[in-house]
Hints:
Elements (H helix, E strand, L loop, with lengths): L2 E6 L7 H4 L2 E4 L8 H13 L3 E7 L6 H15 L3 E5 L4 H29 L11 E3 L5 E3 L1 H15 L5 H10 L12 H8 L8 E3 L2 E3 L9 H14 L17 E3 L6 E11 L5 E11 H6 L7 E2 H16 L5 H13 L2 H14 L6 H9 L12 H10 L3 H10 L7 H11 L2 E4 L4 E4 L1
Parallel strand pairs: 1-2, 1-3, 3-4, 9-13
Antiparallel strand pairs: 5-6, 7-8, 10-11, 11-12, 13-14
Helix pairs in contact: 2-11, 5-8, 10-15, 14-15
Amino acid sequence: MNDSVIVSSVDPGSNTHELGNNLFLFDKPFVSNPGQIKDLINIAINNKSINTFTILLPSHINNLFWDFLKLSNFLYSLGLNVEVITPEGFTTSINDFVNKTKKNVGQSTKKYFQEPASLGKVLGRTPFGYLKNEHGDFGIVGHEGDIVQQIFSLYVNENYGLRKIASFLNSKNIKTRKGNTWNIASLRLILTNSIYMGTYKRYRFTKFSNHQPIIASSIFRKAQDILSSRTPLRKLPKKDFFLLSGLAKCGYCKNSYVGVQKHQYWKTQTSRLNKGSYKYYKCLSNLNNNICMTESRRADTFETEVVKRIILLLTTKDNIISTIFYNLFLNQFDVENIKIQLLKTKDTIDYQIDNTTLINTLVTADLYNQRSSKNFMPQIINSWKSGSLLTYIYRIFTEEWTELDPVLKKITIELCTKSINVYQNRLRIII
């Protein structure tokens, strides 16, 4: 006789024996519980005697509520029987959520954004150098305004490049508003933002002399001319795909390793012009700020080394299947897709829709992320059901790797690894 599992954020009490044999109780009923979600997925994939899950939705529409719906959809995609039970008052809660969401979507742009934008008021976060004053206008922050003026002066008058300006500011221990070091991206945002010469642009509204400028318009325009001259228009080369960008992390500063492509030209002794293209990985902190001294890694050898390490670990780790399915849960299902589907469902079905019908519609909806192949997840699930998942993954890395689509290569690495940490002379991969 097959067992069933009850999943709940509160103790169902006397109903436990009526609903099933096992109770999986979440100890934090209002927030996400990634550790318990992972444990529950392990139960689902490792205990073949369990084929039914009864999920009692939380009474409040909070982070755990969306986790439960996401989990229900995931378990259903594994071919398991999933029954979702709604609490008392659920109809009111879900209708209030839908109405509030629709109201915000329908009215927020006009009421909360367009009207203040037409008046040149602050909307959202203010750029470095300004803060919102008591009237909702842009007010200059003294010391930040001085830094902005210094950045423009170094760039326009002293002929400093962006890297040199970043190094200068960091050497003086001058920080951004968030307390971070300066880099090329943060400096470019300042040098190209017309807000600093008093021009306001939001929601199709443009207002000149909207507020007190930090930079004279002549200085700002000269900065744009310099930026244009240093980045001439040219045909952009086709970007190569880097398998490990964002997946590999620096073991020291914890920042991402990103792929970089560099082109070099040189003349031979016979005056013949040669061109070389180099691909490598570099710590983002080192690339932008020069504050991390970890070494660069040649792209082809680095990717090959990571794949070889994963192949070796596949034969020695017992928990690889759990890792694959938990990563699948994290990467394939998007809570925003569930919310969008909920709004669509309430639009097409009568307002007083039965709770069971509504939830079943969400549970059985196609909520896969579009970045993955439609056939990839069914292949993983089918190989798991037949007891050949490790063989299937091993074959991908060894026999099918060279012919595999680069996007699927990256997804496969992402599914099979918990972390890829890069150190000066070593590499640490956890699966």
